Amino acid sequence: MTATTTTVFEQFESDVRSYSRMWPTVFDTAKGAWLRDEHGKEYLDFFAGAGALNYGHNNPVLKRALIDYIVGNGITHGLDMATVAKRRLLETFRDRILGPRNLTYKVQFPGPTGTNAVEAALKLARKVTGRQSIISFTNAFHGMTLGSLSVTGNSMKRAGAGIPLVHATPMPFDNYFDGGTADFQWFARALDDSGSGINRPAAVIVETVQGEGGVNVARPEWLRALADLCARREILLIVDDVQMGCGRTGPFFSFEVAGIEPDIVTLSKSIGGYGLPLALTLFKPEFDIWAPGEHNGTFRGNNPAFVTAQVALEHYWSDDRLETSTLELGDRIHTRFVGLTEQFDGLRTRGRGLVQGLAFADASQAGKVSQIAYDNGLLVETSGPSDQVVKLLPPLTIADDELELGLGILADAVASVCRAKDTTG
């Protein structure tokens, strides 16, 4: 990026910006799995708006519906008023998502972002149980507002709060000790031991796959044990599906693989379909004890997002084709990553569906790989407490040849950074 093109960003935009530092160009247009900058250079997007663009950029099916709605003078800002767009979304969500899964969740529109959904979930859990404490997990990420930060693990993000973050207790996530310690037994023992110093919490909040935490995947059996532990102790189970929901791991909900039914679920990012801000907090009907207006937000009625969300559900979730494709593409990435781990020192792979991670023993190498990939036209971000994981979040709708092109660019970047294993024996 030239000095001229960066001037307005450097002079007037806050230094808090981050992605523009990783990818120092000015993007102009986007379609499908591609972004183009103002100079015409194209970038294959394996970032997808941090998981907000599961159906790709400017998806033509969603765009047509959005344009038609706007041209027809449809409601844009509706607070929580009843609108035709909201009715269609709720009916489609009931018929395409909840009904086929035998789920009876009520739907709350808490505001436009994932952290709004999490804040609503935490408040509701405390209101329902009358208890204050929340159990969260190591390396968790749930958002940047104070309640969400209190259950987030990243020390840098927590420090930004500027005040103590209270009423939350972290526990070790699945495989936190690399299988060397029975971390779940400690959790259960601490809850039942009157000498542990842990009061019975209102809720446990968990991601089934920790994206920002480094693509840490919870085993289905671990999730089932967690759900059972919560049920037996009358603790509400909250699954944060903001990034991993809407098909990112294969099924619509990431917790389906474990066969559990959380008490509360948070959705955002790709629930809007087109990248428009939208968030949902789902909860079992018996927990709907809000007084009218007790939790609200000016932009909880983003009707254009209702339109694109409804069309996305109808178009992509009326059968299992997208889920099947996502799992197949995820297997292809995993196979390629396994090949890299066999070829180069200090690499491990992990993931589920189309969230896949390549972890580097030397954390500095992940950033170098990401930078080289960018230079060669591929956008991938890093995650984990030391940014030691290259994380892939391509659109679920990516074409086979696009996936192969991106994996080739990434493999070349890894080869240029990492030392090949000595196979001379």
Automatic annotation (TrEMBL):
Its EC number is 2.6.1.76. The keyword Protein biosynthesis does not apply. It is an enzyme of class 2 (transferase). Its cofactor is pyridoxal 5'-phosphate. SUPFAM superfamilies: PLP-dependent transferases (SSF53383). Pathway: Amine and polyamine biosynthesis; ectoine biosynthesis; L-ectoine from L-aspartate 4-semialdehyde: step 1/3. Coiled coil: none annotated. InterPro entries: Aminotrans_3, Aminotrans_3_PPA_site, Dat, Ectoine_EctB, PyrdxlP-dep_Trfase, PyrdxlP-dep_Trfase_major, PyrdxlP-dep_Trfase_small. It comes from the Bacteria. GO terms for molecular function: diaminobutyrate-2-oxoglutarate transaminase activity. Keywords: Aminotransferase, Pyridoxal phosphate, Transferase. Gene3D superfamilies: Aspartate Aminotransferase, domain 1, Type I PLP-dependent aspartate aminotransferase-like (Major domain). Belongs to the class-III pyridoxal-phosphate-dependent aminotransferase family. This is Diaminobutyrate--2-oxoglutarate transaminase.
